[in-house]
Amino acid sequence: MPYTVTLIPGDGVGLELVEATCRVIEASGAKIAWEVQEAGLSVMEQEGTPLPARVLDSVRRNKVGLKGPMTTPRGTGIRSVNVALRRELDLYACLRPCKLYPGVRSRFHHVDLVVVRENTEDLYAGVEYDAGTEEAKQIIALAPGKIRADAAISIKPISAFGCERIVDFAFRYAVAHARRKVTAVAKDNIMKATDGLFFRTAREVAQRYEGQVEYEEWLVDAMCMQLVQKPELYDVLVMPNLYGDILSDLCAGLVGGLGVAPGGNFGTEAAVFEAIHGSAPKYAGMNKVNPTALILSGVLMLRHLGEIEAADRVEKAVSAVIAEGKDVTYDMKPDRNDPSAVGTREMAEAVVAEMERG
Ligand code: NAD
Fold this sequence. Notes:
There is one protein chain. The longest helix has 17 residues, at 160-176. This protein has helices spanning 14-27, 41-47, 53-62, 81-88, 134-142, 160-176, 194-208, 220-229, 241-254, 292-304, 308-324, 344-357, and strands at 3-8, 32-36, 64-67, 93-99, 112-118, 128-129, 153-154, 181-186, 214-219, 236-239, 264-266, 271-273. The strands form two sheets. It has a ten-stranded mixed β-sheet with strand order 2-1-3-12-11-4-5-10-8-9, sandwiched between helices. By secondary structure, it is an alpha/beta fold. Nicotinamide-adenine-dinucleotide (NAD) is lined by residues 69-72, 82, 258-259, 274, 277-282, 289-290, 293, 331. Nicotinamide-adenine-dinucleotide (NAD) binds at residues 69-72, 82, 258-259, 274, 277-282, 289-290, 293, 331.
């Protein structure tokens, strides 16, 4: 019986990346039936929403989705479909492995980190008030002398429930993947209420795994410096939403950039896999950008489905193509203008050819 997976092609470079990734996954031997569900700006006009209920129903039914990046227009009032999808499906854990494959240009020799980002709370909750609104005035009145009268306000909710489940997810992941350490990251010296709650809860969860997985804490600013100086010291990092967003891009930079950084969003009922990067609109339709991040997101999906052999086959082939350095996209060449760089489709074909050889 094939697995049915909801496929959300996205927009911008999403379409070509999804096509390349499906080609590789189909060649891996895994039996997947795709249920294509368009979402985003392309369906907005016809269906009145960028995230129609049919898309959510499909992911709930199939329990697994693979998604191309989707554009969020700036300054239009349209909220991110990516954020809405995570919220609607309560995909509370965002997993972003950052592993340095041989052949990738990097200042480091060994990086094998996993960023676990809380996906539903924090400043991403979407509770915001423009300057001058009644709500902003009411909040300003709660803290006399602390907030200027013309301030816009974003609320940062962090709950004990949210902290417990994300930190427990990080520890469960560490145990399941034989990882030695979980590092919690926040800034409780300044945000004593919200980030204080995050660390207190993390300590409680860590006690349940004592003897199995090490636990430590870092302030987010110091963690940034540690990561760019000594990334080899870290293993699984767990943090609230905003820090996770920023640090996962930083960690992607340690291992070759956005073109190679995969991701997965996990909830109790479903999981949706997508690259960290966005829709890179300036490259849309050019068959230019790197398919590795989405292909490796597909590898995470195959592992989640229990298709371990297929996942290993794809990862090994991707690694071999990168190590050879010939059939790779422009971003993986030492000189970005190297005319020998191949396109999205050709790199995916090289991965397929490598699987067929190996
Ligand atoms: P982006 O990640 O789309 O692109 C930034 C730059 O990174 C690109 O110009 C390109 O140089 C490089 N890049 C990205 N992906 C690459 C790849 N696969 N191969 C090689 N180089 C790659 O970020 P942005 O320009 O800030 O955002 C564009 C749009 O994407 C925005 O509308 C944003 O909201 C959206 N976005 C969506 C998601 C998502 O769907 N999950 C995530 C982030 C951003």
